[in-house]
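Recall from the previous lesson that a structure prediction takes nothing but the amino acid sequence as input. Here we apply that procedure to Bacterial SH3 domain protein from Antarctobacter heliothermus. The sequence below is the only information supplied.
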Amino acid sequence: MNRLPVISLLALVLVASCSGSAGSRVVVKGAGPDELLKLRHGPSLGYRVMLGLPDGTELVRRDCVTELGQLWCRVSLAKAPNITGYVSADYLSGP
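The prediction returns the following tokens.
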């Protein structure tokens, strides 16, 4: 099987999943009632945690990158735009 079409399709899906315009509003969803989504200094688990964000936290999505097969989005807090970091795109819901 030729891997190029599969890789191309995967890249398209990853781009489309974070295709909201830069600066689009999103909400933390799926972290769980007793868990917090970790806002990190960079786009991977290797970066330090800045804050824990509960479900329902409003964020502004800036841009997204893929690191080791995981999609990470650079976000800022809607109510505190000077606080910026990276979260896993798996826990973002919205436009």
